[in-house]
Amino acid sequence: MEYKDIIKDRLNIFSKFYDLIRIVDPIEKKEYDLVDGVAKEYSGYCYEGLQMELPCVNCISSRAYLLNDTVTKYEYLNGCPVSMMASPIEYEGKRYIVELVKRINPLDIDPSIIMETGIGKIIDEMNHKLMHDELTKIYNRRFWQEQMPFIMNDSFKKHRAISCFMLDIDYFKSVNDTYGHLAGDAVLVHVASILERIVKEENGYVGRYGGEEFYAILLGKKYSQSFLIAEKIRKEIEANPITFEDETIAVTVSLGVADTVEKDVSPRELMSMADQNLYKAKETRNTVV
């Protein structure tokens, strides 16, 4: 028996227990079938097969791909709570993900009962929190790790540049030491709000990478364009000190910008380039490199 037939045979066993079984590539966001020894691509994106307009915010297939391990979650699809499992397989030297989906509620339950219990809202909030920073409400580090491979791959397929920058709050430790950690939290929220507003105007993504470090992802922008956006953010933060409990706290930031049009550049390498420029910016502070 050929390997593809072994895979199909094993997946058929699960068909008795799951409502949907499919093979996806979370980097391409594509769904596949194994035909004549070849992974045949279906038209459209994998999330469209779940009748979703946008990729899952909490994409467990991306996580399973990165961890090379099985991952599970709950999702709310088409008015029905479901459990989802994503598990990696190797085929023809490439890693794919098997997704297994099972409805949680019996089909004879009135959907209005599900709505009244708020199950859908709870599931949506749970998935949202996994990808967002609790304090600033913008994306977190996990979003970069799991979504950036697809974002970059999609940009390369469309032959457009992609850039990012890393932002670090200058002398943030002294803010905590002088005014307290609550003031430090207020500064983080203040910086995040300015960063998010300006980057969203450019249809980009922003997140808190950790501590006082933030990142931004800009689509179709080369270094020179992203530099100007980063400089705009730097100037606005500098011009708008924060008031906390009758104290005026001046805030400045340093930013490192990087871009690429090369398909072989990974998300980690792109961030590393931005980090190197951030390091240079922090030599003088309150600047963009």
Number of domains: 2
Strand content: 25-35%
**Looking at CATH, which topology of the largest domain would you report?**
Alpha-Beta Plaits
The low-confidence parts are: none
Please state how the strands of the largest beta sheet are arranged side by side. Answer: 3-2-1-6-5-4
Quickly name the level 1 CATH class of the largest domain: Alpha Beta
Radius of gyration: 22 Å
Helix fraction? 40-55%
Main sheet record = 6 strands, antiparallel
Order of helices and strands: HEEEHEEEHHHEHHEEHEEEH
Q: How many helices does DSSP assign?
A: 9
Number of strands: 12
At the fourth level of CATH, the homologous superfamily of the largest domain is: Reverse transcriptase/Diguanylate cyclase domain
The helix/strand class is alpha+beta
CATH architecture label of the largest domain? 2-Layer Sandwich
Q: Mean pLDDT, nearest integer?
A: 88
Shape: globular
